[in-house]
Specification:
With 591 residues, this protein is of the alpha+beta class. It has 25 helices and 16 strands. It folds into 5 domains: 85 residues, Zinc finger, CHC2-typedomain (DNA Primase, Chain A, Alpha-Beta Complex); 135 residues, DNA primase DNAg catalytic core, N-terminal domain (Alpha-Beta Complex), CATH 3.90.980.10; 128 residues, Dna Topoisomerase Vi A Subunit, Chain: A, domain 2, CATH 3.40.1360; 62 residues; 149 residues. The protein is globular, with a radius of gyration of 28 Å. The protein starts with a helix and ends in a 7-residue tail after the last helix.
């Protein structure tokens, strides 16, 4: 038996999911509030017979492995390890080297965890940490906050931690690999001394390293020092506070990124839980890839100094290349230098700042034109140099066109000149930018509708075949759903559709189709007073509406392109086609 199958026999999906979601019996299934998006009416269903789950609200669903993948933001191999440990199953290792690497990582995790406890104990109990306690108190950190974030203090001594970790049975060489001791001239000494310790936890809540702030600033000593890269810590893939923020990020479907660790802690202490930090370093593609597992919507709220503004610009550009929706929250000048200071002044000011976050281009347009002298040609060139690169990062050509037109009007220049500059930028970027690996995100409204319509087709297609003639291949944009519809369409047209026969003849489709039909059960359970034919009419109409609008958007782009190269006949034909589609909207209950 495969390990994944053995795990499923030992872990009941209802029991496992029930540890994270409060479930109540609902007929043959169980229902609760979805852990992956904010909702007030329970739409999250778990089937004990099929051992799957599905959320009508956000469209996510699957087996126990998919639940762990979504909950922890991991891929299947990591989910397999998590669930195997939970089920008490020892996974076979393919090589001795793999086992050795795994054992070494376990040691590194253990040493860092012990270090966090050691430093926290020193901070809370030792007289040598009196100044550190006073420093944190002056910063406004409450005792419960210090405990929750495992803050600590590294004594001003070269061998205190060294002696502690060897008494725990670990080799000094292992502590060196963990980044906590330094080996020099045949001897060993503590890496961190006289510093307030901020443990760095990965998304699963495991201590992987530390950021250490100096307590007594001296010339030549760095204010902050991070653990070196180790077998379990890479600063390019560590997002500070993500372990504590991931649930709130899912519920709000947004993540606020600040600079400092203190900013993150203060935000959480004040109740703003969807906040993470860059730990004062430049944001990386690895960190963004990790965040995108939880939400594609970013709000940057870096410090308002020159370094913070520069870091914001770099982070925005990188995030846009990875497909994020980006906003910028700007702390009003004169109120505070960072989120920590602003919240200490008044949490409502921070809340207002985040709520007033602007689309990144609106932010930069406002910043560029705030003091622009339109009589100065050099100033105009500088404005173009700042904004055109940002416009080129917009994925939607309609959005690019909107802001390009706005820029031309602001600068009082010919839009065609700006378009030429933009196209050059786009061509250059396409030549050197590799395709990014897509990250798992919640299903779009388009996919949700396609899934609902297809599930209803399986439920009623055999009984009412003629009513489905309105659907076409264009209505399905997702490959699996396209493939299924292409297969069943001729069967329905010939009044020869047998849903069970289709499922039996395509065993690879069975898990996905079962999930699809379970989602429909959920839909019907949530709408018991609505006839199934009414649901079908509603969802088909909305799907056709999206299809029509998509075609109209494509025509707009084709019309613009034809206008630019002077093809008047093509413009007339495309415009006529556009007008016909506009009239089609009336057929789908659109006023």
């Amino acid at each position: 038996m495969l390990p994944s199958e053995e795990i499923k026999t030992k872990l009941n999906v209802v029991d496992f999911v029930g540890e994270y979601v409060k479930l109540k019996k609902s007929g043959a299934n169980f229902r609760g509030l979805c852990p992956f998006h904010q909702e007030k009416t329970p739409s999250f269903m778990v089937s004990p017979t099929k051992q799957i789950w599905h959320c009508f609200g956000c469209g996510l669903g699957g087996d126990v492995f998919e639940f762990v993948k979504q909950l922890e933001g991991v891929e299947f191999p990591e989910a397999l390890q998590i669930l195997a440990a939970r089920a008490g199953i020892v996974l076979e290792r393919p090589t001795i080297e793999y086992q050795k690497s795994s054992d070494e990582k376990k040691t590194l995790y253990a040493i860092n965890e012990l270090a966090a406890r050691f430093y926290a104990k020193v901070l809370s109990d030792s007289q040598v940490a009196a100044e550190a306690r006073e420093y944190l108190s002056k910063r406004g950190f409450r005792p419960e906050t210090i405990a929750a974030w495992q803050l600590g203090y590294a004594p001003n001594d070269f061998h205190t931690f060294e002696n502690f970790i060897t008494k725990k049975g670990y080799q000094k060489s292992e502590a060196v690999k963990a980044g906590l001791l330094i080996e020099k001239d045949g001897g060993f000494f503590d890496r961190f001394r006289d510093r307030v310790m901020f443990p760095l936890l990965d998304q699963h809540g495991r201590v992987v390293g530390f950021t250490a702030r100096i307590l007594h600033e001296t010339e030549g000593a760095a204010k902050y020092v991070n653990s070196p890269e180790t077998g379990i810590y890479s600063k390019s893939y560590l997002v500070y506070g993500l372990h504590a923020a991931k649930t709130a990020i899912r519920h709000t479907d947004s993540v606020v990124v600040v600079e400092g660790n203190a900013d993150v802690i203060t935000c959480h202490e004040a109740g703003f839980k969807n906040v993470v930090g860059s730990s004062g370093t430049a944001f990386t593609s690895g960190q963004l890839e990790l965040l995108k597992r939880f939400s594609p919507n970013l709000i940057f709220a870096f410090d308002v100094d020159e370094a913070g503004l520069l870091a914001t610009r770099r982070a925005v550009e990188l995030a846009l290349t990875q497909g994020f929706n980006v906003k910028i929250a700007s702390i009003p000048k004169g109120l505070a230098k960072d989120p920590d200071e602003l919240i200490r002044r008044d949490p409502a000011l921070w809340q207002g700042t985040v709520e007033a976050a602007k689309n990144f281009l609106d932010f930069y347009f406002d910043a560029v034109f705030a003091n622009l002298n339109l009589e100065d040609s050099l100033a105009k060139k500088q404005a173009v140099a700042e904004l055109i690169p940002l416009l080129s990062l917009l994925p939607d050509p309609l959005d690019r066109g909107h802001y390009l037109q706005r820029l031309a009007l602001k600068l009082l220049v010919d839009e065609k000149l700006l378009l030429e500059l933009l196209n050059r930028r786009l061509q250059a970027r396409e030549q050197k930018t590799p395709a990014s690996r897509p990250s798992p995100v919640k299903k779009t409204r388009q996919e949700l509708l396609e899934r609902r319509v297809l599930s209803l087709l399986f439920r009623t297609g055999a009984e009412f075949p003629d009513e489905w003639a309105v659907l076409s291949d264009d209505d399905f944009t997702y490959p699996f759903l396209q493939q299924v519809f292409f297969e069943v369409k001729p069967l329905i047209q010939n009044h020869n559709f047998d849903p069970d026969a289709v499922i039996m003849s395509h065993p690879k489709w069975q898990p996905e189709l079962e999930l699809l039909l379970f989602g429909l059960e959920n839909e019907l359970a949530l709408s018991p007073d609505i006839p199934i034919q009414e649901l079908k009419k509603q969802f088909v109409s909305e799907l056709k509406l999206l299809t029509t609008r998509r075609k109209m958007n494509e025509l707009v782009n084709r019309i613009k392109a034809a206008e630019q190269i002077g093809r008047s006949e093509e413009v007339r034909n495309l415009t006529s086609e556009f007008n016909n589609l506009s009239m089609e909207l009336a057929k789908f209950n659109v006023g």
